[in-house]
Amino acid sequence: MKKVMVLMVLGLLIAAVSGCSSNSSSSSAVKKPMKIGIMLSDAGLGDQSFSDAGFAGLEKARDELNISFDYREINDTGSYEKGLEELVNQGNDVVIGLGFSMQEAIDHTAKKFPDTTFLLIDSESDLPNVHTVTFKEEEGSYLIGVIAGMKTKSNVVGFVGGIDVPLIRKFEKGYTEGVKAVNPKVKVISTFAGSFDNDKQGMQIAKDMIKQKADYIYPAAGFTGVGVLNEAQKSGIYTFGVDSDQFYLAEKAVVTSMLKRVDVAIYDIAKELVKKGKLSEKKTQLGIKENGVDVAPIRVMPLTPAETDKLKEFRNSLSEGTIQIQL
Fold first, then answer.
1. CA 252 to chain centre
2. CATH topology for 35-135+263-286?
3. What distance, in Å, lies between the first and last C-alpha atoms of the chain?
4. pLDDT digit string (tens) for 249-266?
5. Phi, psi of 258 (to 5 degrees)
6. Which among 231, 240, 197, 207 is positioned nearest to 46, based on CA atoms?
7. pTM, rounded to two decimals
């Protein structure tokens, strides 16, 4: 009997030890949150446009997907490359460079750290460890142009770009073609500010355009564009937001905004990382068809039913590829 009791006690002890071991291995198997680092574009947080949209995408991913993230701004690091290296050294699973101006720094850093995965937004790289996301900004800008062309009373409209680079020329090209598609008589005035972070300069450019009778102005100029919105409202003309819905910045002037869904793109990247542990697509381009660009709700200056139908028709044609914008 004693022998049986001893064997029973030994069995219980073995089961207990086995259970502890199982719980320990189970605990160690719990996945750590995916870590994402982002180097923000030169205007940084508070640009009420591109950087803020990218940051919002990561905040949503943190709240809904349980990722962790950190960020750097050039005002703190002094250079893009230093900020990117800091994020690599933190052990982030993916390091994001937000903006075309990050191209050179991303390439240099990616060569130094070939085992790190990088994501470049708004430009492309051929390096094996750099994935890219670009947008068809010309498609969303075309729709903005259609609205301006339909609604202008003076037959003069304006475009304000930040830095004169191919990316911003895509905005200008789409906008101009959209205007001309519905109203060939309209004159489009274009000015490039040379910066994305000077709202006072944006205000002055808008003033100059208004003197030339522009009654609708479309800025693709980051924080410089916010100055355009403010001046448009002050002067009683109409304008458009860009990248995110900027209606709240000038509620008497912003008719709609060209939505460039950087927040959605970054959130989807985070979702894929959580699900698969890696990025599958090397190069991704997002247009109207892919829900990467669009226009925000139209306010301030409502469209007539006929104008609404026309805008929808152009949107469908862009999505289906029957309208091709030559860049």
1. 25
2. Rossmann fold (3.40.50)
3. 92
4. 999 999 999 999 999 999
5. -80, 110
6. 197
7. 0.85
Tens digit of each residue's pLDDT (9 = 90 or more) over 50-85: 788 889 999 999 999 999 999 999 888 999 999 999
Alpha helices by DSSP H, the chain:
2-28, 50-65, 74-77, 80-89, 103-112, 137-151, 166-182, 199-211, 222-235, 262-276, 305-320
Local structure of 92: helix, strand or coil? coil
Nearest alpha carbon to residue 299 among 243, 237, 256: 256
Q: Where are the domains of the chain?
A: 35-135+263-286, 137-260+297-320
CB 93 within 8 A of CB 106: no
For residue 2, what pLDDT is reported? Answer: 43
- Residue 33 pLDDT grade (very low, low, confident, very high; cuts 50, 70, 90): confident
Per-residue pLDDT averaged across 283-294, rounded? 95
Residue recorded with tokens 């994501």? 119
Domain 137-260+297-320 CATH (choose: 1.10.10.1020, 3.40.50.2300, 3.40.50.11810, 3.40.50.880): 3.40.50.2300
- CA distances from residue 241 to 48, 107, 146, 177, 182 in whole angstroms, order as listed: 10, 31, 15, 18, 21
